[in-house]
Amino acid sequence: MKFSLKKLGPGLLFAGAAIGVSHLVQSTRAGADFGLGLIWALLLVNLFKYPFFQFGPRYASATGQSLLDGYKKMGNGILVAYFILTFATMFTIQTAVTIVTAGLASSLFGNLGFDPELGVKLWTIVILAISFALLVIGRYKLLDSLIKIIIITLSISTVAAVVAALINNDTPLSFTQVLPKETLEIGFLIAFMGWMPAPLDISVWHSLWAVEKRKDDAEFNSDSALFDFNVGYIGTVILGICFALLGCLVMFGSGESFSSAAGEFSGQLIEMYTSSLGDWAYILIGIAAFTTMFSTTLTCLDASPRAMDRTLELLFNRNYKRGYLAWILLLVLGTIIIFFAFASEMGLLVKIATILSFLTAPFYAIINYKLISSKHTPEASRPSLKLHILSWLGILFLIGFSIWYLTIL
User: Fold this and answer.
1) Which of 242, 255, 249 has its CA nearest to residue 277?
2) CA pair distance 306, 327, nearest whole angstrom
3) Angle value at C-alpha 214, between 212 and 220, nearest 5 degrees
């Protein structure tokens, strides 16, 4: 299949949503605390989550409908469960990604003339306002175009930062893999895998974006949808490894630990990189970090309202003309309220969001697999035997790790 940047879209939006807290925060922490010892976890969870993410664009390209439409065919109970789970997590997730973005903006661009704590809060409002305007004015078309620029920018800057760190490194890298044994370490491992590369409900977002892409591009068929997905997915894996490498090269063995406050964390992150690589790296790391988090903030702010609006339409069998707008406004207001109340507890918010994502993963894995294997999916688009086997292993893996985590609480 001939490569064309124009043909890409939903896969890059998936990457934009995925490459955020899981990469900048969790992967960097993994590298800082364990060196390259958790690469096995990064690769394993990406492998076992792969089919359930892929089923989103697979179903959308085969039927012209989102996964939510498929859930409706399987019974309203699944849609209701999806609505409850999403409503319970969407504000925490949006706050977790926005709080990191605001902290980075404060470190990079200053505090708008105020003290650091107030500066971060004001940046929260500014970032949400900009994202809101982009989505309401430009809708999917602008988001599709903008994400290409953002993903290319963050990819180039991140890879360049890794190369610079490797050049400056004079300590041999250890590839010895480790299995955490302490309760706190196991808790981190679960959180790390919870959002690596992303929560499984992003498969629903991806299917919604794929439906929108089909409206704009009649040639966006099953082959191009899967190619688009694979480009985005492989990109998230590579960049996850890059951030783990950065954490390992810059912080492993340094004895440093991250602050849980947004502004302090962001300044600390950039300062550690520049102190190791030199002042010239400030802009490079700043661009990589900020574009990483802004892409996640923007795509999450689009996707959750889009999904909630479609869920209500299906549940009540009616079209809400301003449903998308109403949900975005609700999400923005909820995010600001939570942010102002818990700005100093960024670490706790991230931990809650990532653990919730991991514990709900088996639910999304099972219903996505049941849908793509059912009569509601055209036979030609159902999984191959290899994908069936990988799906079974993935479901067992996700359930097993969830039970393991619950037993150590």
Assistant:
1) 249
2) 8
3) 140
pLDDT higher than threshold 90 for residue 379: yes
**Dist. CA 39–CA 176, nearest whole Å:** 9
- Structure confidence at residue 113 (pLDDT): 66
Look at the chain and count its residues: 409
Domains in the chain, CATH or no CATH each? 5-408 (1.20.1740.10)
Q: Give 375's DSSP letter.
A: T
Structure tokens at 367: 């219903």
Residues near 345 by beta carbon (within 8 Å), at least 6 away in sequence: 260
Fill in the DSSP letter of residue 384: P
Q: Average the pLDDT over 220-241 and give the result.
A: 89
Identify the three-state secondary structure at position 180: coil
pLDDT tens-digit readout, 11-37: 888 888 888 777 877 888 888 889 999
* Confidence band, pLDDT 50/70/90 cuts, at residue 237: very high
Are 65 and 208 contacting, i.e. CB atoms less than 8 angstroms apart?
no
Residue 216 neighbours by CB distance under 10 Å: 11
| Burial category of 319 from C-beta neighbours within 10 Å (exposed 0-12, middle 13-18, buried 19 and up) | exposed
Please identify which residue in the block is written with the tokens 């869920």.
Answer: 311
Most distant CA atoms of the chain, gap in Å: 63
The answer to whether residues 85 and 233 touch, using CB atoms and an 8 Å cutoff, is no
> Whole-angstrom Cα distance, residue 11 to residue 1?
16
The two tokens of residue 69 are 């439409």
CB 287 within 8 A of CB 157: yes
Tokens (6 digits) for 346: 């960024």
Gap between the Cα atoms of 207 and 201, Å rounded: 10
Amino acid at 363: F
pLDDT tens digits, one per residue of 62-97: 999 999 999 999 999 999 999 998 998 888 889 888
Q: Is the pTM of this model over 0.85?
A: yes
Cβ atoms 92, 353 nearer than 8 A: yes
Q: Which residues contact 195 (CB under 8 A, 6 or more apart)?
A: 20, 21, 22, 26, 353, 354, 357, 358
